[in-house]
Amino acid sequence: MNGPRILVKVPASTANLGPGFDALGMALSLFAWIEMQAASETSITMFGDGMEDIPTDKTNLIYKVAQLVFEEAGVAVPELSITMYSDIPLTRGLGSSASAIVGALVAANALVGSPLTNDRLFQIATKLEGHPDNVGASLFGGIVVSAWDGERADHVRIEPHTSLETLVAVPSFQLSTEKARHALPKTLNMSDAVFNVGRSSLLVAALSAGRLDLISTAMRDRLHQPYRAPLIPGMSTILEHAAEHGALGAALSGAGPTIITFVDGISDRKKELEQFLKDTFAAEGIEAETIWLQPCKQGTQWRQISESDETPLMDRIRNEVRAK
Ligand SMILES: Nc1ncnc2c1ncn2[C@@H]1O[C@H](COP(=O)(O)OP(=O)(O)O)[C@@H](O)[C@H]1O
Ligand SMILES: N[C@@H](CCOP(=O)(O)O)C(=O)O
Q1: How far is CA 113 from CA 70, 106, 150, 211, in A?
Q2: What Å distances lie between residue 302 and 27, 113, 193, 214, CA to CA?
Q3: Which one of 9, 45, 56, 74 has the minimum C-beta count within 10 Å?
Q4: Nearest Cα to 252, choosing from 272, 268, 233, 267?
Q5: DSSP assignments along 44-78, one per residue
Q6: Which residues participate in ATP binding (predicted)?
């Protein structure tokens, strides 16, 4: 084969955290892996739940994003061998598209000797995704606060509090971010804008200062969740009552339909909260998988696979999971 083989591990992300629409994101301990190498002929293999519908020709997102990096770096790598395995559910509000974009950028950049800085990768990723929250979290890890003016994205990373855990409820239906963005109004009234500025600022300060007691009130939102609620039966009930079942706070994860609850790791009410989420969706006739996830402190990581290592990607992932 041709030159180095790169293996990238990208975390999932939850965006908005309630009030921080298009501004706040947190990386989660759920991952996608991408292997990339120059080849004599392009071959793309995608595996993982739902990945069979993703195109495996040169229209593939990973392939196209990689070519953007090569173009900017001034090198030609027209044929690629790409393999991707993902545990991140597709189109559920856990940043699968951001993980694909960020993973492709980091893999392609590493393949040609890392000519682009992480900041440059962040700028490209933000433009491709259309908002900086998911890509920032996947790239840098931890909690990422960002602002994008359509030209430049700036960010600050916050270390997640050591006892912060999350429980996500992932409904069995998909909801595309595009559809969920179409549900939003074009204008807002001043009092709702003021409400969100206050909550989002308070949330950032509370997360920075480790004030977990403020999270419940700080996670409230009037900017996007009320408009998206009709698309996700059960969501309003969960957001209103999760704190009564032991959650520190609750929000729609990204554009949904996944709901994320923040939980104190030492809470003895974890089972109760999990049951509440499942029961609330079940009452609406929706099956939902609950998953406990940690905030992921590491962003996207890559390493070069030795030329002689013939281990298939899936076995390599199993080994990584075992080594954790
Ligand atoms: N590995 C991938 N390769 C190509 N496209 C992908 C990949 N992962 C996700 N996507 C695209 O992103 C879409 C989901 O993005 P989106 O609606 O923003 O939801 P989310 O990012 O929350 O999962 C998928 O329907 C698919 O088109
Ligand atoms: N800020 C975006 C976040 C979309 O996240 P995703 O994980 O659903 O792609 C939005 O709320 O539209």
Answers
A1: 11, 11, 28, 42
A2: 16, 12, 40, 36
A3: 74
A4: 233
A5: EEEESTTGGGS--STT-HHHHHHHHHHHHHT----
A6: 89-99
Q: What is the pLDDT of residues 21-43, one digit of tens each?
A: 999 999 999 999 999 999 999 99
Return the amino acid letter for 198.
G
Q: How far is the CA of 81 from the centre of ligand 2 (A)?
A: 29
CB atoms within 10 A of CB 265: 12
Question: What residue owns the CA closest to ligand 2's atom 10?
Answer: 255
At 13, which amino acid appears? S
Q: Is 128 in the pocket of ligand 1 (CB under 6 A)?
A: no
ipTM of model: 0.98
Q: Which domains can be identified in the chain, with CATH numbers?
A: 2-159+296-318 (3.30.230.10), 164-293 (3.30.70.890)
